[in-house]
């Protein structure tokens, strides 16, 4: 099948066509007739997914794979219609239609469709007229009329009824995405809710009703503005523009142009739906705990009458060859980087050249032993570098990226990337690397099969690319036939002066634009109302699942190895992969140098092997290692193919015990770390979610600031770091093992190979950080060049107690969770104030830690006043609606009844439980408590822990766009510098001090 290494190759825009390697498949058996059943299906002999592929009479494709890890089903409904299908004069239709598919039909989402339709038809005509207006004053006055009629129509709408229905049946992950080639709708549902889900979706795809259009248009505006604020998006757009001077991939964006978003056409959206949302252009892709025979019968019941329609074949003119280097600059506040792009056939070609490109990609960058990995990352020639295929149907872009070191130009970083491609063209890689890449694919294959999402995603990819399943699962055998000589010849032919370079420079964007907000009157939500369709849905009978809670003493074995070290064991009964962890209860809070030490490890060798040789050897074995540090824990891990566990563990133990200091590697690491610190201060998400969030909760003495200063960083000695690494397994620790071996055999391997001292060193006492009680409301803000403003509301609460678990979780589900929550409905649906908005009561992760209240709003700067007012009001006076509460409660119970904690997750769930001072699965307590809870309980909780708090506001935005008079209404306003937030001083300051 399509190829994916263990590392997460970026296919961009959330495209879920995650390729994967399958074992060889032989003869396709088309259209077998299942025994005692009336539907024909296709299967491929040797397919590890054992997929069944049906085609209904109306052309609807159905892909199914049975995987019973939990009583749930991952669902994707894929439509072969993405941004490239948008007409040139009305871009953004596919994406906007995706949003409108959540608004309901004539059966749900409405209280009286006959009356509502009169108003909706008027709104549609008004928008068509609005598109013809050019005078700004006239447009503004006319939009006021649209707003007025829209408000009238909203009185007949039931906002978010789709989301309430699917959450009510226990769905999670409800979402959708639109790419250049496809639109895909996502739900993960309990297996017992399959019929209810099919009934909802069958109705949903039967027609489009553009209700609550103008508030959703505001959400799309916000999404557009977010993209204008994202430097990564600018690089992506420039990449497509330079790669595709004529193809729609480069000539129009999925989200649409600003001009088209300002002049939307409901009529064109309806036409788009009627043209492409047809059963012969759609596939239902399912994987999970299902019975194929029963499932296809239900799909026929709810989708069989969906009318097919002839489809116009999508055609495009092939791009002319790129014959010279194309260069482009983009500007923004994020750290500088460079991207080099080459164009190749798309996934739909399913060609040998496509496979060669994928193989070249892995030889260049596989996270361990690729040319870029060893020559640039391991040698620290740049701060970061890599490559990935940006896979689309018609073409693939092979993108290479690098972030330069301090003092290094983007052009120099570019040349380093091109140098690795030249090595590929020279065949300057070892012969074993191709086989090792295939080992990597094998490991990835096994891991992907453990995911229903990945399984169903494969179906989406095969369907939307028109690749027969028998061809989709046969790629590995062909890839095995590609020789090194053939690959080198391919690289020489394809990687020439036929690329584009995108230089992302730090600076003000000369092309910066934004969409201005229109005036919108808050619409009615009719929160407590339900449609007849929803009421009928509730009457459908479905088998009740019984929750399964973990009895830790039954699912986890506790053994002792040498020196009395505790081993927690769970057997992997599914495949031949192992995971081994050494856990220490000490982290960066207690010793901030630990983070530096574990980072240093990957650049070190032993007295017998260089760091490069070690990386190569692990890759040959199909294993990988790492050391991670959190605030209160270190864990050293080794994972991979069980057949190679002994040699991998031997090598790993040798590295931990005998790592040799390398002063040059340390010097390079420190220089790059200083550069990364400067780059971090250019990242708005890091500024908000790390810097401001920590400062807002802890003040100046925060865990984030508990780090080595730049000067201390430069003074750390290589020997001291190596001693710290070598001391990890000499301290008190425990071992977690998940793998196919019996416990006795796993313990025997550990006793033989895990080196321990005579006496283990005690863990030092943890340094703890306390959240600050806000004596008065405060507003902390940091300047950043951006269109939007992003805001956090923060308030410390009481110490964590298990007694609040149930009501806190129920409060979160009702108030601030998904698209059916109070916060989402009020802020986005009713007023269009934000694209992203949510709130939660965050419980402490361990015994003794404080809980806190957290709310986020990302909005246009010119909506700051309304957004702050809206969120503060919700936190203060939470709307009470019995119907919404019952739906939230039902949703939570349904999710808990179908959730299963399995595999290695069992071990880590137990670890989290112990950190909270518990020894049993608290989900059992939560499940039992929620059943008897009322809206009054949630109200009481909100009044005690949320309402009336002295909230600290944290704001990141452009000082020229923020309204400080508005901000001052929420507390004393204080600007925080980047040094205030992150604590480390700039390299220039260190030099002066030295």
Automatic annotation (TrEMBL):
<protein>
    <submittedName>
        <fullName>Insulinase family protein</fullName>
    </submittedName>
</protein>
<keyword id="KW-0732">Signal</keyword>
<comment type="similarity">
    <text>Belongs to the peptidase M16 family.</text>
</comment>
<dbReference type="InterPro" id="IPR050626">
    <property type="entry name" value="Peptidase_M16"/>
</dbReference>
<keyword id="KW-0645">Protease</keyword>
<feature type="domain" description="Peptidase M16 N-terminal">
    <location>
        <begin position="75"/>
        <end position="110"/>
    </location>
</feature>
<feature type="signal peptide">
    <location>
        <begin position="1"/>
        <end position="17"/>
    </location>
</feature>
<feature type="domain" description="Peptidase M16 C-terminal">
    <location>
        <begin position="773"/>
        <end position="891"/>
    </location>
</feature>
<dbReference type="InterPro" id="IPR011765">
    <property type="entry name" value="Pept_M16_N"/>
</dbReference>
<keyword id="KW-0862">Zinc</keyword>
<feature type="domain" description="Peptidase M16 N-terminal">
    <location>
        <begin position="596"/>
        <end position="688"/>
    </location>
</feature>
<keyword id="KW-0479">Metal-binding</keyword>
<keyword id="KW-0482">Metalloprotease</keyword>
<dbReference type="Pfam" id="PF00675">
    <property type="entry name" value="Peptidase_M16"/>
</dbReference>
<dbReference type="InterPro" id="IPR011249">
    <property type="entry name" value="Metalloenz_LuxS/M16"/>
</dbReference>
<dbReference type="InterPro" id="IPR007863">
    <property type="entry name" value="Peptidase_M16_C"/>
</dbReference>
<dbReference type="Pfam" id="PF05193">
    <property type="entry name" value="Peptidase_M16_C"/>
</dbReference>
<dbReference type="InterPro" id="IPR001431">
    <property type="entry name" value="Pept_M16_Zn_BS"/>
</dbReference>
<keyword id="KW-0378">Hydrolase</keyword>
<feature type="domain" description="Peptidase M16 C-terminal">
    <location>
        <begin position="267"/>
        <end position="439"/>
    </location>
</feature>
């Amino acid at each position: 099948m399509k190829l994916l290494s263990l590392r997460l190759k970026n296919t961009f825009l959330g495209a879920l066509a995650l390729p994967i390697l399958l074992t060889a498949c032989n003869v396709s058996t088309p259209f077998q007739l299942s025994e005692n059943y009336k539907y024909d299906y296709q299967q491929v002999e040797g397919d590890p997914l054992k997929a069944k592929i049906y085609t209904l009479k109306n052309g609807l494709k159905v892909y199914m794979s049975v995987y019973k890890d939990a009583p749930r089903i991952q669902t994707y409904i894929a439509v072969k219609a993405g941004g490239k299908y948008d007409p040139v004069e009305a871009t953004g239709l596919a994406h906007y239609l995706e949003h409108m598919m959540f608004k309901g039909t004539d059966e749900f989402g409405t209280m009286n469709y006959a009356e509502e339709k009169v108003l909706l038809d008027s709104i549609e005509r008004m928008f068509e007229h609005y598109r013809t207006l050019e005078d700004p004053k006239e447009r503004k006055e006319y939009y006021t009329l649209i707003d007025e009629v829209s408000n009238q129509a909203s009185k007949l709408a039931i906002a978010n009824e789709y989301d309430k229905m699917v959450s009510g049946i226990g769905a999670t992950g409800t979402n959708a995405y639109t790419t250049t080639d496809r639109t895909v709708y996502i739900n993960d549902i309990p297996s017992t809710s399959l019929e209810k889900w099919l009934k909802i979706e069958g109705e949903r795809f039967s027609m489009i009703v553009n209700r609550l259009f103008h508030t959703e248009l505001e959400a799309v505006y916000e999404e557009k503005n977010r993209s204008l604020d994202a430097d990564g998006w600018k690089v992506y757009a420039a990449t497509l523009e330079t790669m595709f001077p004529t193809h729609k991939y480069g000539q129009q964006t999925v989200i649409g142009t600003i001009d088209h978003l300002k002049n939307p056409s409901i009529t064109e959206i309806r036409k788009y739906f009627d043209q492409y949302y047809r059963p012969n252009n759609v596939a239902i892709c399912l994987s999970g705990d299902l019975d194929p025979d029963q499932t296809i019968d239900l799909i026929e019941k709810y989708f069989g009458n969906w009318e097919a329609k002839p489809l116009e074949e999508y055609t495009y003119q092939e791009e002319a060859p790129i014959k010279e280097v194309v260069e482009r600059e983009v500007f923004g506040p994020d750290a500088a980087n460079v991207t080099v792009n080459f164009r190749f056939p798309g996934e739909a070609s399913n060609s040998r050249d496509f496979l060669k490109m994928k193989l070249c990609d892995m030889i260049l960058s596989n996270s361990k032993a690729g040319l870029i990995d060893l020559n640039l990352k391991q040698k620290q020639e740049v701060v970061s570098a890599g490559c990935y295929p940006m896979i689309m149907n018609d073409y693939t872009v092979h993108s290479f990226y690098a972030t330069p070191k301090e003092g290094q130009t983007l052009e120099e970083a570019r040349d380093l990337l091109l140098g690795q491609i030249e090595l590929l063209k020279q065949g300057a890689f070892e012969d074993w690397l191709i086989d090792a890449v295939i080992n990597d694919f094998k490991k990835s294959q096994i891991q992907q099969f453990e995911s229903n999402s990945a399984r169903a995603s494969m179906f989406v990819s095969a369907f939307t690319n028109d690749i027969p399943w028998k061809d989709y699962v046969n790629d590995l055998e062909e890839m095995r036939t590609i020789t090194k000589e053939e690959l080198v010849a391919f690289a020489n032919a394809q990687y020439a002066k036929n690329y584009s370079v995108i230089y992302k420079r730090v600076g003000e964007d000369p092309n910066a634009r934004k969409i201005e907000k229109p005036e919108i009157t808050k619409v009615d939500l009719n929160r407590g109302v339900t449609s007849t369709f929803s009421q009928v849905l509730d009457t459908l009978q479905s088998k009740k699942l019984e929750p399964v809670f973990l009895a830790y003493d039954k699912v986890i074995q506790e053994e002792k190895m040498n020196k009395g070290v505790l081993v927690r064991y769970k057997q992997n009964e599914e495949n031949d992969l192992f995971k081994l962890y050494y856990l220490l209860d000490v982290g960066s809070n207690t010793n901030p140098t630990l983070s530096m030490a574990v980072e240093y490890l990957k650049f070190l060798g032993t007295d017998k092997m260089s760091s490069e040789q070690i990386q190569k050897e692990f890759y040959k074995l199909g294993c990988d290692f790492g050391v991670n540090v959190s605030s209160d824990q270190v864990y050293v891990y080794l994972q991979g193919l069980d057949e190679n566990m002994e040699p991998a563990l031997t090598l790993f133990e040798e590295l931990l015990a005998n790592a040799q200091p390398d002063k040059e590697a340390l010097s390079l690491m420190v220089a790059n770390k200083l550069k990364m610190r400067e780059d971090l201060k250019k990242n708005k998400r890091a500024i908000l979610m790390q810097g401001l969030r920590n400062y807002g909760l802890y003040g100046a003495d925060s865990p984030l600031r508990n780090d080595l200063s730049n000067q201390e960083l430069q003074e750390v000695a290589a020997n001291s770091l190596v001693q710290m690494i070598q001391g990890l397994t000499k301290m008190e620790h425990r071992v977690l093992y998940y793998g196919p071996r019996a416990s006795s055999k796993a313990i025997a391997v550990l006793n033989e190979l895990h080196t321990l001292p005579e006496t283990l060193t005690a863990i030092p006492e943890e340094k703890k950080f306390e959240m600050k009680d806000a004596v008065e409301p405060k507003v902390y803000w940091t300047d950043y060049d951006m269109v939007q403003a992003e805001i956090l509301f923060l308030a410390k609460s009481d110490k964590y107690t298990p007694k609040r678990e149930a009501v806190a979780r129920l409060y979160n589900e009702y108030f601030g969770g998904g698209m059916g929550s109070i916060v989402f409905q009020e802020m986005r649906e009713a007023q269009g104030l934000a694209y992203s908005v949510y709130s939660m009561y965050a419980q402490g992760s361990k015994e003794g830690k404080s809980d806190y209240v957290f709310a986020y709003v990302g909005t246009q700067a010119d909506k700051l006043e309304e957004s702050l007012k809206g969120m503060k009001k919700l936190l203060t006076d939470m709307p009470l609606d019995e119907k919404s509460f019952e739906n939230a409660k039902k949703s939570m119970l349904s999710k808990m009844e179908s959730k299963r904690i399995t595999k290695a997750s069992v071990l880590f769930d137990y670890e989290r439980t112990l950190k909270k001072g518990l020894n049993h699965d608290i989900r059992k307590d939560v499940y039992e408590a929620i059943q008897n809870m009322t809206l009054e309980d949630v109200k009481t909780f909100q009044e005690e822990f949320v309402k009336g708090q002295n909230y600290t506001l944290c704001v990141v935005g452009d000082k020229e766009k923020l309204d400080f008079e508005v901000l001052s209404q929420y507390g004393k306003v204080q600007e925080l510098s980047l040094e205030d937030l992150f604590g480390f001083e700039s390299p220039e300051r260190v030099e002066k001090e030295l």
